[in-house]
Structure formats: C-alpha cells, structure tokens
C-alpha cells in the first residue's frame, strides 16, 4: 500500500510538471509572437492542384523562406513568405506551421524575399498609369527599373492530352522623373535617352548582351550606365 501511495504521488508530481511546462511553453510562444501578431491577418490560401505543370510562385519556390514585409503600417521580419505571381498575392504560414494565408494586398506596401525587393504600386496615385500590384524593383538609382512578374495559367493541347500550364509573362518599366515608361524593347528604352543613345548601345555591345534575350539584365546595365554618365 505504501508503495502504491508513493507511485501515485510521483505520478501527480509528473503531471504537475508537464502541465507547468506546457503552460510555460505556451506563454513563451505567445510572448514570442506578441510583437508579430499583427502579421497573422489575411485570407485562407490553398496551393494549386498538382496536375498543373510549372509553378505560380516566384523563383519556382516549393517552400517558404523568411523575408521582411511592410504590412498595415508595421515592419515584420523573419516572416515565412512565398509570392504567387499568378494571383499577385503574398502568402505566409500561420504559427501552426501548416495553415496558409495570403496577406491583404492593399495593406502591403513592400516586401523583401530571396534577394529581391518588391513594392506595391497603386494605379492613379500621383498620376501613376501602371496597374495596381506588386513590382520587383531590380534597380534603384536615379532611374528605377521595375518588373511586373506574372504567371499566366494556360490550357495547352497536344495529340495525347489537354493540360494546364503556368507560363511566364513579364513586363518591364522604367521610372524617370516620377513617370513610368514601358521599356519592353531596346528601342523603347533608347527613345527616352536619345542624347546618350550611342554610348548606351556601346555599353550593351561591350557586355555582349542581346536585349531581347536578356531584357532584365540589359535594363539594369543600361540604367546603371546612364546614372553613371549623368553624374
């Protein structure tokens, strides 16, 4: 009987310890996310059906990577992020590590992930003609180069099957003197800088870059070169 009482007493102590430990962990968890709690605010999100070929996500990401997001007037760091280029949504995980949600786009001013800086542009704000959405700011000098990255979902057919596929559809823009210009071709870019045209063409030639094959790389080099020439 004495042994039974000792055993029951030990079990009671163990249960008290486990309950105290669990409570402490919960309190620590709540403290750890307290300052970040505002970031858990968005809409439920589900991944695409696996039968679709390709990926809707930036850099074909298959998992979340930590980044920084400016959301509803606050800056949140080390937040798990993915960017859905088809729906133009920034996606994250709830603190359970499983449930996914998308941020309310109108509350996101900018975010950083995978070495890229994205800014949200709102149409008709300060005369902006671009469509509202997230733009990858690949160059930020006197001139600014922005890429509107998107993935279109297309239905394609072959002799054997009908399938859904994500395809890239990017657009390139230059910001100069508070105005945005579509610079999807070398001609469109050079038209804006006629006084430097020959010098800028030489820059591309020396770097052995063909604009139509590498538009993003070409634009960053051209904008950097123009800024340097203008100093």
Task: Describe what this molecule looks like in 3D.
The chain is of the alpha+beta class and 231 residues long. It folds into three domains: 1-32; 41-182, no CATH class; 183-231, no CATH class. The protein has four helices and 13 strands. The chain has helices at residues 2-34, 186-191, 197-207, 215-230, and strands spanning 42-44, 65-71, 74-84, 89-93, 100-103, 108-113, 116-121, 133-140, 144-148, 151-157, 162-168, 171-176, 179-182. It has an eleven-stranded antiparallel β-sheet with strand order 1-5-4-3-2-6-7-8-9-12-13, covered by helices on one side. A two-stranded antiparallel sheet has the order 10-11. Strand 12 and strand 13 form a beta hairpin. Mean pLDDT is 85; it is low at 2-35.
Layout: helices, strands, pairs:
Layout: H1 2-34, E1 42-44, E2 65-71, E3 74-84, E4 89-93, E5 100-103, E6 108-113, E7 116-121, E8 133-140, E9 144-148, E10 151-157, E11 162-168, E12 171-176, E13 179-182, H2 186-191, H3 197-207, H4 215-230
Antiparallel strand pairs: 1-5, 2-3, 2-6, 3-4, 4-5, 6-7, 7-8, 8-9, 9-12, 10-11, 12-13
